[in-house]
Specification:
Helix content: 25-40%
Number of helices: 9
Organism: Halothermothrix orenii (strain H 168 / OCM 544 / DSM 9562)
Protein name: O-sialoglycoprotein endopeptidase
Number of domains: 2
CATH topology of the largest domain: Nucleotidyltransferase, domain 5
Strand content: 25-35%
Radius of gyration: 18 Å
EC number: 3.4.24.57
Keywords: Hydrolase
Pfam families: TsaD
Number of strands: 10
Length: 239
């Protein structure tokens, strides 16, 4: 079985291929808000480098959020188009799950943090030493202020390290370093949802019969787009 993984949820996009032998290839590229222009050429290049054709893909995994609203739409529409044309299943995955998956064999707590602006992050919480992301997850996904997150983690501090991963690591580095508990900051290379990891996790979902029809996959924004909020405010003020 050949599975493609796609992420366009952040500034760095990633695509990967995975089969029974493992990761076949992965390309990470800074998109600079040009997701729609660069995604398909990157996919074509990955397939060519791996000696595969698009019609050989048996399933596609895609990050559904949280992340950039525009980026998520582009990645999801691409994955859904492949699924529709090729008649293959889709696996929708959380960007927080994938970030945690990058560190899942770490002994301790894993805290993915994606910058949500205004000193807030999208986050969740996972126990390490598990290949089962679903069972490792011990907190629901939500948007929190960085101070509220620190307070929450302080209340469950059991002496084991908290591994922070994601683009929120650098954005709020000083906050994490002053947290007052054992805080380990993952390197930037671990802070993106890697296409190879997306494809790998999707591969096992599909093996377990957990694929979805492309019509069933939806975005997980965690909060409403700012443009929608601004539109609503403007029209309410005009009433």
């Amino acid at each position: 079985m050949l599975v493609m993984g796609i992420d366009t949820s952040g500034a760095v996009g990633s695509v990967g291929l995975y089969n029974d032998d493992g990761v076949l290839g992965e390309i990470n590229i800074k998109l600079k808000r040009r997701h729609s222009e660069r995604l398909l050429p990157v996919i074509d290049r990955l397939l060519m480098e791996c000696g595969r054709e698009i019609d050989q893909i048996n399933g596609v995994g895609v990050v559904t959020g949280p992340g950039s609203f525009t980026g998520l739409r582009i990645g999801m529409s691409t994955a859904k188009s492949f699924a529709q044309v090729l008649n293959i299943p889709v696996v929708g995955l959380s960007s927080l799950d994938i970030l945690a998956y990058n560190l899942i064999i770490a002994e301790g707590w894993i805290v993915p943090v994606i910058d949500a602006r205004n000193a807030r992050v999208y986050t969740s919480l996972y126990r390490g030493w598990s290949r089962d992301i679903k069972n490792a997850k011990v907190r629901d996904e939500r948007a929190l202020s960085v101070n509220d997150l620190i307070n929450e983690l302080s209340s469950i501090d059991d002496g084991k390290p908290f591994y922070f991963v994601g683009n929120g690591v650098e954005e709020y580095r000083e906050v994490w370093e002053k947290a007052g508990f054992n805080c380990v900051l993952a390197p930037r290379s671990a802070g993106i949802p890697h296409g190879g990891s997306i494809a790998e996790l999707s591969f096992y979902h599909l093996k377990n019969g957990q694929g979805q029809n492309y019509l069933e996959v939806s975005a997980n924004y965690l909060k409403r787009p700012q443009a929608e909020i601004n539109w609503e405010r403007k029209h309410k003020s005009g009433d």
